Sequence to fold (1070 residues):
Amino acid sequence: MSLIGSSVKRVEDKRFLTGKGRYTDDIKLPNMTHVAFVRCPNAHATINNIDASKASEMDGVIAIYTGADTAEVNGVPCGWQVNFKNGDTMKEPKHPLLAHGKVLHTGEAVAMVVAETLAQAKDAVEAVRVDYGVLPAVTDAKAARVDGAPIVHDDAPGNLVFDWELGNPIADVDAAIANAHHVTKLDFVNQRVVPNAMEPRSAIGHYDDALDKYTLYTSSQNPHLTRLLLCAFVLGIPEHKVRVVAPDVGGGFGSKIFHYTEEALVIWASKKINRPIKWTADRSESFLTDAHGRDHNTVAEMAFDEAGNVLALRVKTYANLGAYLSTFAPAVPTYLHGTLLQGLYTTPLINVHVDAVFTNTCAVDAYRGAGRPEATYLLERLMDTAALEMKMDPAELRFKNFIPAFDGVEQAGYQTQVALQYDSGNYEPVLRRALEMVGYEDFRAKQKEASSNGKLLGIGFSTYIEACGIAPSAVVGSLGARAGLFESAQVRVQPTGKVSVYSGSHSHGQGHETTFAQIVADRFGIPMEDVDIVHGDSDAVAFGMGTYGSRSLAVGGSAIVKSMDKVLEKGAKVAAHLLEANVDDLDFAEGKWTVKGTDKSVAFGDVSLTAYVPHNYPEGLEPGLDFSSFYDPTNFTYPFGAHVAIVEIDKETGKVSLKRFISVDDVGNVINPMIVDGQIHGGVAQGVGQALHEGTIYDESGQLINASYMDYVMPRADDFPSFEVDRTVTPCPHNPLGVKGAGEAGTIGSTPAVMNAVMDALSPYGIHDVSMPVKSEDVWNIIHSNS
Amino acid sequence: MIPSQIAYQKPESLEEALNCVGDLGDMCKILAGGHSLIPVMKLRLADPENLVDITGIPGLKEISDAGDSISIGACATHADIANSRPIHSAAPMVSKAASMIGDIQVRNFGTIGGSIAHADPSADWPAVLLAADASINMQSRSGSRSVKASEFFLGLFMTALQTGEIITSIDIPKSAANANSNYEKFAQPASRFALVGCAVAADNSGDALADVRVAFNGVSATPFRDGGVESALTGSGLNDESISAACGVAADGVDVMSDHFASSAYRKSMAAVFAKRALKGLS
Fold:
């Protein structure tokens, strides 16, 4: 009986599906107060005056704080430093808890109202009078770099956070492009999207003066890091006096990795009023203040020889980081984007240049895929466009340029031109399998037939690689990370042989309580019900770096394996003592230690009981069976795959419909295929969402004009066909589980596959690019201006 | 999201309700299904001091056959309407439009009376009621009156409903045209309201089309009957050529709305496309 590779139903679903999950907003503490924020309606303004006199006299109002009150408190820090090309330190203006003197984006909080009830807090918010001096705003990164553009921070000239370059010398790349047989060039926007987690952000700050201890309940993917930033950088309160709990969290997609101002404010104000304080975002606040994703403005050029071999790649990107630097913002367009531009191809020369730019918008940070979708989008759009321009088959063009297979054991890892060394890969089979599933040979005939019936069908390809299992601490440290990216896990075998696992990973939809329990139950040979996974509480779990970057299984799971190794090593000593045998003569299988070649055995539960009731016990051995481990990976992991989309366009309306979606992913070894499929499905939905539905729209004054579900288009179930999903397995050679990570694959591969399919459908009209999200009107204009 | 403080009343008879709204006048809003009003109150875009909930009034939810028309109570939900056999026989476009509103939850709560009183020009009901030549029955404590849909929808969120009046029912005439009717919509992808909604009804029992009614919502700030398309079709047969020719003038001379989903030029073209699709669904 192996639980590994088995689609065990999710342990956590019972409580989620019956409405019994416990989210931050479900928590009600005695004597708790409520917060509502006064948020600025302008994108860029001076705060001339705040009059809270009427509001402060309203029923139930306890306190009103403004930027003047928090002026002496540190701002929210950035967790990653990327310096200018010339070595200058990146521009890192203070991100104040409440705007003071100036507001830099719509929705920035200028006052915090604490009241007995939420309704009273909201009523008082309306009574706070703020006199703003409205300033010109800039929301587009490229526009922000133009001379004369509004300046977001006075100490960041030209709105530049930093400029950055990676890869081969630009002169070599320029020369290769200048002399190439063919150059494909795309100038496009990878648009800004809003994460839209189902659960809005929420935080409760509770200062307990009897214990002089703080507790923060927060909807976070990353409770320990939040504690570290809160204590060491923002409030300067002692870390051992702060407990951070991230209970059930309803999705994050990256947006809940970061430490937000509201978390610090509820803790800070809770001590001031000596009562617990709760804040929960409403959906409008989520749109305006959850860190957004993407927003790259890019020119990408790929050079080919006559046979279709890629010779060089040149990329210039303006990355919009918003008004303030969110926790991991500088890493996204650089070390999570530039480093992935090798893709699956043997491109010998690559140069990428990034201008990271301040604008009068909400911060942009990691959003499902984080940099890797942007890299994959440009590579894969270039590939299909080049195939079209060079009249080559897009699948064949990829086969021609794929890096040959390497397992990372017998063959070395693959050293890219952009810093990373891929661990193991075998790229041709994923695309071959995808072509087989889609019936590629028949598709072109069907497409012709559809065309003669007035329908436009299109097929699009995308092959991708991502860097997951984030990350080897020393490597990321050398690249500017201000934190390690290891993970911790404690495996506590209870006297009765039941197991509690304390993981620093955080599950907010990923199903850790199931997958991790499968690993532990399988290894110890005990039922899954005997394993409990504890996460999201800094008082229970030693330390954690949270969940993002498809790291939980590869890094957090490996930490669990390390602790299980220690349990079994010590358990064997106890077993050997009980069996009166040598440790070397024992085998452990199916939940018991057996003396090789005999039927003498002792069960896991008997050993654990002996460890806690050590009457008959090995001399010198400590009692107990409880081990902690920290696992720091030696490399990133590199999942890869091939996605194929088929779209149909209604010529009368321009509406694009996704007809089929095929995904063949290689995420290394798979613990729970159902959960991995679910991750792929959700990821694909978000990736397709970016291609066909989602995207922010700012007006000239900097207003986000589609900040509601009446106007922001979320993909819905009826927008999708059933996904056709398959896998190949190329194990990761450097972690004990051989796993690579599956959380972001769907998002990374799907966006360009769909856009390539749209372009293929529109190829009769001589069009090589349309903006995302694809608007029916844009497609209609293409069809009707050319026919 | 939490609205400002409100006083709430739930009368148990129409008389009581009429007295309530008569006394409160502009100080109150009438609450039925709440699917237009409550969202704007939560966003504090509407801030009524009083809510008069009319869903407790007996009979206001009823759908009944009144001989030469079908009477739909103002508090009938979209789901009630979508599932009504008499309505489907009398005017299939009414059932179809009801089934295309929002999602299941919205259809189970939202009411026809509430929707038309709100008068969002992109909602599905206006075009259907215009094409059905429906009458809207209203009452105040000083009496009752009935107006045709064409005199009810006056503009963006504006109707003929006066302060102190409650919509009590909507009459859908039984006619050959209504029995041969259809509704098609090009949904706004986020809200699924109509970017363009077109309702058509036409008597095709004789040698040529008669009693042709074509109406649009989503296209302009006021939902409208399209006289150009109607007269082009009247007296002709129902075929690809006649449909094509008639739809060529769809929304001509109308001030067409524009937003980030559809410019006015595109919207006008879609009006023609969806009129064509609606007409092709007629027999």
Remarks:
- The first helix of chain B runs from residue 14 to 24.
